[in-house]
Design a protein that fits this description.
By secondary structure, the protein is α+β, with helices and mostly antiparallel strands. 39% of the residues lie in helices and 18% in strands.
């Protein structure tokens, strides 16, 4: 836990050593504790990051021969899920205009060795969310849980239950109303994100992100899969009627108009975040539109969008995103299938925002206007990159690749992932063609020069320029002879790690006021080792001029590093200089003969 033993702010230790070092640096001004709300002892912890074991939090030694005593029952990745669930539900309810009136934990926390079996959250609008996370002998049998549920419903207007997928009470709720809502967490970087699942009978839960859920008009938790199940139970003949407290928000009347004798098709299992729609015409609340996706293949290109009310924000012919939560369905007719999206609204993509699902018209790189979207500029660069590779124009290909890397670096985190995926996919397609011929020695020399310049820019804090040079180096790396691949791969990996680390890691070589981090020492050592290997290989190949250039690149690295750490490398460099001089003399004397 961060801050204090009684803190409600959990933190995860990443398994990677580099990420663990960054976490330690990010929270260097704060303290870690074995949290009491996790069933811990409340003592202070420290980050233990070694060369072999997985990074983890550890208790400080007690200064005695006795082992450290802490009776915390669980320390796995899910041991703090009850805290993440509380945080996420509190934020989510606030967005739904529900303020928290009362909150209570269930179980044996906070105390050492205690566990959390559940919690209840009561809002100012009379809603009570009861959450059962672990088996509890007091409530799990067939009789006590229904009695407890009935008592809660007598004292509160609305009660919704969320269960852990493994607790026995799930079967009670599915037997009562045909489905149960389950809650779980999944890892997302250094945090755990909450998701809500719909469990129908003995089937696997159908999960949805908490942000895609809402409270319906009756004040009950609504998910896309719950709406799907409720619509089935209404339409299918002989479906069991739901109890009074399970009334639902039915879709608009237009979506229930099904021709007699024609079956209803329920489906379209696709997240709305992967969709873009282009309205073609509007008729009140119903919009005829084209639908497309950059990620998956869709079964249709035409869709009918049904909104709760008529809106004037729809722009005909322009790409829009779907505002959820949304129910995506299909209904069969005599002539085919009509796809419908029951959504809360449509929102046009801003002109300057990356539109990952759109298909902008390809244009040449030099014709892109300043008003074009980032995605349009990236598409233009990719098209130009393909043309340059087909024409075997190495210079233009290198320039465009650097522009693509620089453009991606200006985007948000989500857009970066999508754009980089598109760039890598285009690279793989182009790599199937024959690589452009290039002189081996010239490629090696040019790649070494670009990497040196990229490292200098990174240490100077010019990260955008360093990323652009990194893109050029990746393009040129394809033409490097196989004998140099290993050494240059180490340099490229070292540069990538430096660019993804925090700015405090990117320091100058001769900085004497701040102590270099362990991560920067590792990057410098890898680069020095790569230079040593390249110099030795150049001498073996009888190339003293190239070896001499590599020595010039290695000398500033050694000069800016602690001498005691690189004594062997400095000695090796001196020996190489002697060998280079002797090799040069032999070549000159051979020419004179």
């Amino acid at each position: 836990m961060l801050g204090s033993p009684k803190s409600h702010e959990p933190i995860l230790m990443p398994f990677g050593r580099i990420d663990a070092e960054l976490l330690r640096k990010r929270h260097s001004a704060r303290r870690f504790f074995c949290g009491e709300w996790l069933g811990g002892c409340g003592k202070e912890l420290y980050t233990r990051i070694g060369p072999q074991k997985v990074p983890h939090f550890a208790h400080h030694p007690e200064g005695t021969s006795r082992p450290i005593t802490c009776r915390r029952s669980s320390n796995d990745v899910g041991s703090a899920d009850h805290l993440y669930i509380r945080q996420a539900l509190t934020r989510w309810l606030t967005k739904q205009d529900h303020q928290i009136r009362e909150f209570s934990w269930e179980g044996t926390i906070p105390r050492q060795g205690g566990t959390c079996t559940g919690m209840t959250i009561e809002t100012t609008k009379g809603l009570l969310i009861a959450i059962a996370l672990r088996p509890d002998l007091r409530w799990d049998s067939d009789r006590p849980w229904p009695q407890r549920d009935a008592a809660l419903r007598r004292s509160h207007k609305k009660v919704d239950w969320l269960f852990s997928p493994t607790v026995p009470m799930v079967k009670h709720m599915t037997r009562r109303q045909g489905y149960a809502l389950v809650v779980d967490c999944e890892s997302d970087g250094l945090r755990r994100t909450v998701r809500i699942g719909t469990k129908i009978g003995g089937k696997i839960p159908l999960w949805a992100n908490l942000e895609d859920c809402k409270l319906d008009e009756q004040g009950r938790i609504w998910t896309p899969h719950v709406a799907d199940h409720r619509r089935r139970s209404v339409r299918l003949p002989g479906a069991p009627a739901e109890v009074e407290h399970a009334k639902v928000m039915e879709p608009p009347p237009e979506s229930r108009a099904v021709e007699a004798g024609v079956g209803s098709i329920i489906g379209f299992p696709l997240s709305i975040s992967l969709l873009a729609v282009v309205p073609c015409s509007t008729n009140g609340c119903v919009i005829e539109a084209e639908i497309k996706s950059e990620v998956v293949t869709l079964p249709t290109q035409q869709v009918r969008i049904v909104l709760p009310e008529q809106t004037a924000d729809v722009v005909i012919g322009r790409d829009h995103r779907v505002i959820g939560p949304a129910l995506i369905s299909a209904e069969g007719t005599q002539t085919g299938v009509t796809w419908r999206i029951h959504a809360q609204g449509l929102q046009a993509f801003p002109q300057g925002e990356l539109e990952p699902l759109a298909e902008p018209t390809p244009t040449r790189t030099d014709e892109v206007s300043p008003e074009a979207s980032a995605w349009g500029r990236l598409e233009s660069i990719l098209d130009g990159l393909t043309e340059a590779r087909r024409a075997r124009d190495v210079k233009a290909s290198t320039r465009l690749n650097g522009e693509a890397e620089a453009l991606i670096a200006t985007l948000g985190a989500t857009e970066q992932k999508r754009a980089r995926k598109r760039l890598n996919r285009r690279r793989r397609a182009d790599n199937r063609a024959e690589a452009p011929p290039a002189a081996s020695s010239q490629s090696v020399r040019e790649l070494g020069r670009i990497l040196d310049l990229a490292f200098d820019k990174a240490r100077a804090g010019d990260v955008p320029e360093a990323r652009r040079l990194h893109g050029q180096a990746l393009e040129l790396f394809r033409s490097v002879p196989i004998a140099h691949v290993g050494a240059f791969q180490e340099l490229l990996n070292s540069l990538q790690r430096a660019l993804t680390s925090q700015p405090t890691v990117l320091q100058t070589r001769r900085s004497a006021t701040t102590k270099p981090s362990r991560h920067s020492h590792r990057a410098v050592r890898q680069k020095i080792s790569a230079y040593i290997d390249l110099i030795g290989h150049a001498i073996d190949q009888g190339k003293p001029s190239y070896a001499k250039e590599l020595c010039k690149g290695l000398e500033p690295l050694l000069a800016g590093s602690p001498e005691s750490l690189y004594l062997a490398e400095s000695k090796q460099l001196a020996e190489y200089k002697t060998q280079i001089s002797a090799l040069h003399d032999r070549i000159v004397s051979g020419r004179s003969d």
